[in-house]
From TrEMBL:
Pfam families: Nuc_deoxyri_tr3
Designated name of the protein: YtoQ family protein
Amino acid sequence: MSEKIWRVYLSGEIHTDWRDEIAAGVEAAGLPVRLSAPVTDHEASDDCGVVIMGAESDKVWHDRKGALLNSIRTSTLIEEADIVVVRFGEKYKQWNAAFDAGMAAALGKKLVVMHQPEHAHALKEVCAASSAVVERSEQVVEILRYVIGGTLPKR
């Protein structure tokens, strides 16, 4: 197995436990992976700018302060990543996830996209820029196992 510590950024929806599933799978497989992610506390992510830099009376500026502050973390972690995994959920449109996927592609990062089959058409351009498209967290873990150690799952 590689001695390299692989940096994997987990972007996308925050309403399910897919990040925890990948973390558990990486740990169980003993993979040399360091996972990172955006702030997944929705309220903290939305309000960080005004909490830290002061209130805004206009919601547009409230949101902009938060987006700018969050972009420091997001862009830094994507730039540092070896692999970016972007999960598109079922319930909400994740415009931020699409933006992260585009940023990763523009930076030449290896991209793994995760979504349900019914979103294939809507995400066709995002998927075309990726190295792999999967539906489940365990598939991401198996991709990491193969890429890092060259081993396939037992059949």
